[in-house]
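Worked problem 6 (solution included).
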Amino acid sequence: MRRIIHIDMDAFYASVEQRDRPELRGRPVAVGGSPDRRGVVAASSYEARAFGVRSAMSMARAVQLCPSLVVVPPNFATYKEVSGQVFALFREVTPLVEPLSLDEAYLDVTENAWGEPLAVTIAKRLKTEIRERTGVTASAGVAPNKFLAKIASGWQKPDGLTVIAPERVEAFLQKLPIDALWGVGPVTARKLRGIGLERLIDVRDADPERLKQAVGRWAEWLVQLSHGHDDRPVEPHRERKSIGTENTFDDDLTDPGEMADAVAGMAREDAEYLDRNGLFARTVTIKVRYGDFTTVTRSDTREPASRDPEALAARAVAMLARTAAASRPVRLLGVSLHGLVDQPMETPEPRPGTTRPLPFDE
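Solution. The predicted structure is:
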């Protein structure tokens, strides 16, 4: 039986800004670009979230929701420094640390350098050490596997600690709605509810064919998770293969210019991730979900790989123009970057207009 901890820093970027600027404490804060320059929210404080401000939202929309919002430009050098302190602490406990982002990780503490048999004791100490070393808080989930630990870490945010002991797994699963399943977003949840599945445990008894029609190849995996089964190990050297941002809009978009602005903003946000992690991307993919929930993707792969925000944004906008978005209401837009590499290949750019679609391109 593994002992897994999932640590998630609380509103990380915004919390660091509030730590360093006392005048921001207790105020709604959004980290990101200017609302006057197609900025996108990279992170929001809990005070801002109370107004509905969320990451990947356009900053202009965020200011509409929260007129008192304080917009702060990102300082990735500081965030990376704080992240380094946190991850150094993690590795004092165990070499089995799987980073998910600058502010989130799994730790397998089944065996640990502190010689502590109880994962909850380790989690408490980690939370205390993080606060003392960095001045910001983290939430932790403790469970026998990664799936449950990740759910647990978000159960009592901010500054929370939730433990799912092996003997309490089934009781915990009984409480969870269908949305708690890994990979189930609003649209998939709607499909699952459409076939009568309201709670996570309802998946266990679902008709296999109807479930497969609703979620495709994920059906078997979702059944496993509904039983609380997740055998994935903590992988300390897991390579990230893609980065993506998407936004479901409160009201369907009909203005092509607004759609282009949203797609460009998301591409620039993804490019910021590449820049602060020393990566380049070969492929840009956009996702468009229309008001009737029909979803299409478009992909563009080029060499050499790039992390230029304007070039990536231009590619995303060009692909958007090749969809029916200009003539149909759009519910969701997303931009993801794939084929991440440490160095751009020194090969010629393809001729203008040439692309190599991903297998799932429609």
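Discussion: Confidence is low (pLDDT under 50) at residues 346-362.
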